[in-house]
Write a structure and sequence with these properties.
- With about 400 residues, the protein is α+β, with helices and mostly antiparallel strands.
- Among the domains are: about 40 residues; about 110 residues, Beta Barrel (Elongation Factor Tu (Ef-tu), domain 3), CATH 2.40.30.170; about 120 residues.
- About 40% of the residues lie in helices and about 20% in strands.
- The strands form three sheets. The protein has a six-stranded antiparallel barrel with strand order 3-9-12-11-10-13.
- Strand 10 and strand 11 form a beta hairpin.
- Helix 4 runs antiparallel to helix 5 and helix 4 packs antiparallel against helix 6.
- The longest helix has about 60 residues.
């Protein structure tokens, strides 16, 4: 038989030995096991600060696609690369260049050759230029299909002027002939009237003596009155043909000729409605319509002087204080093998809305800018003459002076 007497040397309870007790007590956590936690937190914080400051490619890509900006919730962003001049010490300033977007333009801007005033719905009949052609002031760029009608009207007015000129010459001849004829007739009437007056005086004298019947006296008086009236009529007619160039028929013919000449001048001016004329010398930069087409609001072509090229920059209003006339400028673009060089010649006086936009999808599209005009150096201008309208990125800064001279 098994002995069930308890062993006094055992310390545990019987239930614990059978597995029905409270079990072993939980050991206390020691500090040696918790020390990695604050170390890991410190490392994560340090890595975050370093990443925000240096901004590795992965973090930059994250900010690029999300549109977020480090420290944007504060009044002064932190951990952002310097883009402006930062004060150092009491008066020392670190100079930084100004970056702006712009476009290449010919000197004096470009001109849109519009349809002539009064052209209506006319279409292009003939085009005399092509892109890249050089033209002089007054050259015909295109003829419109309304030109034949205008030419017919011009020919009609020219013929009318010739007709009026012939009529004036004929009137002068007729007036001169009528004047001579009337003067001769008046002279004959004056002689007849004088003779009739003498005959009347003789008959009256004989009638007073009683040797001339009354009927003969009445006949002499009537003849004298008739010849006097004929003289008055011819004298009045003679005054009608006198006066030289101021004579009425000649004056009327001259006024009709003036009217015909005015119509001719108007027809010549109307001829301008059938042609597109270059207002100044330059080069055809672009054609907007071809023969048979009716140009739209862009006009027929774009004309510009490409002998000297310029660049129009849009500088942010916050950066304009660091831009001055004479400042060197470097222009870059994917289409340029080497940068273009120039200098600032004019700074605008008006704050405008930005029109040249960056390809960056998160770029600010409602920025306020001031236009700055840059004159390209001769060598750069020669390279840029075929690139009117090219969008460029400009760097303006004092440190470009030496580089600009090297680029020459």
């Amino acid at each position: 038989m098994q002995d069930t007497t308890p062993d006094p040397t055992r310390t545990g309870l019987p239930l614990s030995e059978n597995g029905k007790g409270k079990g072993p007590t939980r050991p206390h956590l020691s500090f040696k096991r918790l020390w990695p936690i604050p170390v890991i937190i410190a490392l994560l914080f340090t890595g975050a600060v370093i990443g925000m400051y240096f901004q590795p490619p992965g973090l930059k890509a994250f900010f690029h696609f999300t549109g977020l900006k480090p420290g944007a919730g504060t009044s002064r962003p932190i951990a952002v690369p310097l883009t402006r001049s930062e004060a150092r010490g009491e008066g020392e300033v670190i100079a930084s260049s100004v970056t702006a977007l712009g476009r290449l333009i010919p000197e004096g801007e470009t001109i849109a050759l519009a349809m002539p005033n009064g052209a209506g719905d006319a279409r292009i009949a003939r085009l005399f230029v092509d892109e890249g052609d050089s033209v002089a002031a007054g050259d015909v760029i295109a003829e419109l299909d309304s030109l034949p009608q205008l030419e017919a009207a011009l020919a009609s007015t020219q013929a009318n002027v010739q007709t009026r000129e012939a009529a004036l010459a004929q009137t002068r001849i007729n007036v001169a002939a009528s004047l001579a004829e009337t003067r001769a007739a008046r002279d004959r009437a004056a002689a007849a009237a004088d003779l009739a007056q003498r005959e009347l005086a003789r008959v009256q004298d004989l009638a007073q003596r009683g040797v001339m019947p009354q009927s003969r006296l009445d006949s002499a008086e009537a003849h004298a009155i008739e010849t006097a009236r004929e003289l008055d009529r011819l004298t009045a007619t003679l005054s009608r043909w006198q006066g030289g160039e101021a004579q009425g028929d000649i004056t009327l013919a001259e006024r009709q000729l003036d009217q015909a000449r005015a119509e001719l001048e108007r027809a010549r001016r109307d001829m301008a409605r059938g042609r597109v004329i270059a207002p100044q010398a330059g080069a055809i930069l672009d054609l907007h319509a071809r023969a048979g087409e009716r140009p739209d609001q862009r006009g027929v072509a774009t004309l510009g002087s490409i002998t000297h090229m310029q660049a129009e920059l849009e500088v942010y209003q916050d950066d304009i204080a660091r831009v001055h006339v004479g400042q060197r400028v470097r222009l870059t673009a994917p289409a340029l093998d080497t940068p273009l060089e120039g200098e600032v010649v004019r700074i605008g006086l008006e704050v405008e809305r930005q029109s040249v936009l960056s390809s960056d999808p998160v770029a600010h599209t409602d920025a306020r800018i001031i236009r700055v005009l840059v004159s390209l150096d001769p060598a750069s201008s020669q390279r840029a003459r075929a690139l009117s309208g090219l969008e460029v990125v400009a760097s303006l800064g004092a440190n470009l002076g030496g580089a600009a001279s090297d680029g020459q």
